[in-house]
Amino acid sequence: PLEYDDYRNLVCIGLSGEIATTVTTGEVKKGGKISIPHIIYHTIPTASQEELKLNPPPCNPFKYRHVSEELAHGIQLRLHRKLALEKIAYFNWAFLNGVEDNPHVVAAIKADCEWYVEHGLPTLIQVDTTRHGMKLFAALESLGAVFLNRKDKVQVRNSERKAFDERRRPILIATPIFNIGLDFPSLGALIPAGGGQGGVKIPQRLARGYQPKDQGPNAFFVTDFMNRWNPMLLEHSITRHDIYLATKIIYDCLYLLCCQ
Q1: Pairing state of beta strands 189-192 and 219-227?
Q2: What is the pLDDT of residue 68?
Q3: From CA 65, how far away is CA 42, in angstroms rounded?
Q4: What CA–CA distance (Å, rounded) separates 181 from 207?
Q5: Which phi and psi (to 5°) does residue 247 adopt?
Q6: Which residue in 116, 166, 228, 257 has the most C-beta neighbors within 10 A?
Q7: Of 122, 136, 213, 137, whose CA–CA distance to 170 is shortest?
Q8: How confident is the model at residue 69, as a pLDDT?
Q9: Where are any strands of DSSP class E within 12-157?
Q10: Is 0.85 surpassed by the pTM of this model?
Q11: Between the CA atoms of 185, 189, 195 and 196, what dihedral angle is there, to the nearest 10 degrees?
């Protein structure tokens, strides 16, 4: 539906006229006009004491949670800046050890990709950093994966995207250059490996797989994680899960798989 608080929507309304009727995504789904997502969740175990001893957190970003209102504004500002920097450092530490270098995460992604490739489902893996993409590429190269980032030439990206759409490239790993603005009609599986809180990116990513499939079942899969490695990653996982639930009609099945 077109919203009246969006300028671009108002332009569309001005050109086409008022909305005659509204069709919900649920109604479209019942009519078989969209592909149905199935969410596969992997539970990642909590970090062991041995892991934390080997890779201790750089700081405690929550020690200034309660800043006294009686403090001078300048002191508060310095504390807030310090807190912001410590939170960034803490998140980078948690993401590096709990996601990028976490063997449970890599093993879960590889296992799902093997199943997706076996069943002919073109798989898009989205990462936030080049380092993460290279690590997954090393694990999935034997399955026919390719990794693309902003340093690749446009011709290379377009060529690989065409191969992916034509099902000649089974796995495409990409940095945020493929986050928005591109359609993948043949998308069979999506893995948002970067985690995070999701926000508007989740509906955008899921929309990639909505197009009816020309081959195989009219469905696509999403691999995600309930990452209990540390409290911050768990909080982000719960936020993404709540977004999935809030959309109500975007998935039919939710599977909980536990990594051992």
Answers
A1: parallel
A2: 46
A3: 31
A4: 11
A5: -75, -15
A6: 116
A7: 122
A8: 46
A9: 36-44, 123-126, 145-148
A10: no
A11: 30
Place of tokens 């359609």: 183
Q: What does residue 254 show for φ and ψ, rounded to 5 degrees?
A: -130, 115
All residue ranges of the chain with pLDDT < 70 are 1-10, 12-13, 17-33, 59-84, 178-183, 185, 199-200, 216-218, 247-260
Q: What is the pLDDT of residues 58-86, one digit of tens each?
A: 766 555 444 444 444 444 555 566 666 77
In DSSP terms, which residues pair with 190 in a beta bridge?
A: 124, 222
The span from the CA of 59 to the CA of 232, in Å, is 13
- Please identify which residue in the block is written with the tokens 């080049």: 130
Closest listed residue to residue 100, CA positions, set 126, 132, 137: 132
- Paired strand residues for 258: 43
Instruction: Work out the number of other CB atoms within 10 angstroms of the CB of residue 203.
Output: 14
Residues 10 and 18: their CA atoms lie apart, in Å, by 10
The reported pLDDT for the residue numbered 1 is: 45
CA dist 127 and 65 (Å) reads: 31
Residue type, 109: I
| Long-range contacts, 80-86 (Cβ 8 Å, 24+) | 86/58, 86/59, 86/60, 86/61
Please report which helix (H) or strand (E) contains residue 224, including its range.
strand 219-227
Q: How far is Cα of residue 256 from the mean position of the Cα atoms in its chain?
A: 17
Instruction: Provide φ and ψ at 115, rounded to 5°.
Output: -70, -40
